[in-house]
Write a structure and sequence with these properties.
mainly alpha; Rhopdopsin 7-helix transmembrane proteins; 2 domains
Length: 299
């Protein structure tokens, strides 16, 4: 059993880290705020699971893990506080709502207050040599908070699915809402006996799906027609001439060849290319190719 747990936790961590790295590679393609909050949620989830996995082995091999218990408690409190701040921002920005500064400040203050409410008694308990708050309670609070905000996101699933760049986030939200309630029930009924396994299964489902999406983005060949869907054209406000130039750039033509094809000056073509890069928030042809591959997934 312990050998299975070791390999299961190891594979889960490796897949999760790979998903995080791939998300970082995708980050330049997503200029919206929700993706930054997604990265924060992913990183805190990985740390949260690492603490759980380490605690599983420490409880079996360390005779008196009280010191480790308090360290774990502080780390989990930090993860919980980060989640309390990031989850509402992620959900609201994902459904297209702007988070006002006063609400953002409230989320931040609540996160800090929750962190202090856990850490201060933990430090006092460490000095006194006693346990103050069970990790199980922190786990339940974090899961409930996740589910509450992500149910709100699912209520806007149709509008989220309409944007191809947001569909992977919809998968993440759906997996969270489907799996995390079982983790909450397990904590209440089984007192966290299988919590690490359930959370590991959740991370595997989440991150395997995101890895599949990343592979599709980076290894999908650029369509021969330029991959200019109606959504792509509307999203970046491309003119008919700019669409033609993009298709020529995808085929490998340089500015001089494009100018000869359309019977215009090279300076005119360079001006169009500059406008294309500016509208698409990119800097060169390579980034244009990656952007087209990503957006062509909605075809």
């Amino acid at each position: 059993m312990e050998q299975f747990a070791f390999w299961f936790y190891t594979i889960t961590v490796l897949v999760s880290v790979a998903s995080f790295v791939s998300a970082l590679l995708l980050y330049p393609r997503y200029t919206t705020a929700y993706f930054g909050y997604y990265l924060l949620l992913l990183s805190t989830s990985i740390v949260f699971f690492l603490v759980y996995a380490l605690a599983f082995f420490i409880q079996r091999y360390v005779p008196s893990p009280l010191t480790t218990y308090h360290i774990d408690l502080i780390i989990l409190a930090l993860c919980l506080s980060a989640t309390m701040y990031a989850a509402p921002h992620f959900t609201l920005t994902l459904i297209g709502r702007k988070v006002k500064k006063r609400y953002s400040s409230i989320f931040l203050l609540v996160s800090i207050a929750l962190f202090l409410a856990i850490v201060v008694p933990s430090i006092a308990g460490f000095i006194a040599g006693t346990e103050t708050l069970t990790i199980r309670i922190i786990d339940i609070i974090m899961r409930l908070f996740y589910c509450a905000w992500f149910v709100m996101a699912l209520m806007h699933a149709r509008s989220i699915a309409a944007d191809a760049s947001k569909r992977p986030m919809l998968y993440f939200v759906a997996v969270s809402v489907l799996v995390l309630p079982f983790a909450i029930i397990e904590q209440i009924l089984a007192h966290g006996r299988y919590a690490a396994f359930l959370y590991g299964a959740y991370l595997l489902l989440w991150n395997l799906g995101m890895l599949v999406y990343t592979v599709r983005v980076f290894y999908r060949p650029v369509p021969t027609d330029g991959g200019l869907t109606k959504h792509f054209i509307h999203l970046y406000g491309l003119t008919a001439r700019e669409q033609e130039i993009i298709q020529a750039l995808v085929k490998g033509k340089n500015s001089r060849e494009i100018a000869k094809t359309f019977n215009v000056s090279k300076k005119t073509v360079d001006g169009h290319v500059y406008n294309i890069y500016r509208k698409c928030y990119i800097r060169n042809r390579v980034e244009l190719m990656l952007l087209i591959k990503e957006k062509s997934l909605q075809r």
